[in-house]
Amino acid sequence: MSAVDLARRPAADPVLRLLAHGFTMAYGRPPEVVWRAPYAFHLSGHAVRPGPVRAGGAPPTDWVAAADRHLAVAVAPRADGMLHCGSLNHPAESAALPLTGPVAPAPRWAARPYAALRALAAAGIGRGGADLQLNATLPDSAGLPVAEPAECALALAVADACAGPGERPPTRAQLAELLGSAVPGDDALRRAVLFARAGHLLAADGSTHRPLGAPGGGPDLCLLLVVVRTAGPEGLRQDGGATATALVIREALRAGARSAWWPGRRPGRSVLLLMPPDRRAAVRAEVAGAFGRCGLPAPRFLRIAVADAARREDRRPPPPTPPDQESETR
Q1: CB under 8 Å to 268, separation ≥6 — which residues?
Q2: Is 330 exposed, middle or buried (0-12, 13-18, 19+ CB in 10 A)?
Q3: Which of 160, 183, 266, 267 shows the greatest Cβ crowding within 10 Å of its Cβ?
């Protein structure tokens, strides 16, 4: 099946249909594959109970997870060694870049993907080139790191699309090792993108999964991403942004959140909160009310669920089992 069917499938995710259609309009042919990768984030050490002790070692204390918010890439192979790249988020910044030889200047959004795909080409993966289109569903201001999900999605898609007949693409572990050695970045987040399980946390070293559960067998905890909005056309100054995020943390903990932290390695304008589901409404109300009293724009609230790893999206779902066969399998 080709991904052009994805663009025409009414039941498919509208964002993925738009991506497949945009690819066809940009390159005059449908994509070969469409892959979707989750945004990933770190967990605060205060938010997670220590994991089981491994033989000869200490329990994992650093955890990552995948979010149910995704970016997607559409790819088709080329044979001239060129990378033609575009983004629905940056429609005026497409480029044609060589995968071998001297490095060409790339648009800012494409610099790290270009470096990742050059590294793959040097290892013999996708050396013939590719057409690609990327779509990130969250703005950079949301604070969930985008570079590692984009690199993983592109590596999976290019390796898949460019594999020859009867040739098996490299494993996810091999791709993770290639990316980690060639492109500076957060290897723990890459592991989350490639190996996450729904409802589970992943140790940052990739050694083990564990459920995101409440202590004592209580109701499962939930995650809420709070994004500080800019104030006016020039946005908040750096010190103003720090003050606003500190306000989020203070009011959220006061209203019943269990933990609050930055989703990436460095502070930004968003905060992840962990809380019992029955405190979510109170936390939202207290944080929004505090911002209103301070004359600040109300922040944006996004529910986050712990999701699965990256997956290919353009395969047709299996047909339903005919009634006569269904009865025979019972």
Answers
A1: 143, 245, 262
A2: exposed
A3: 183
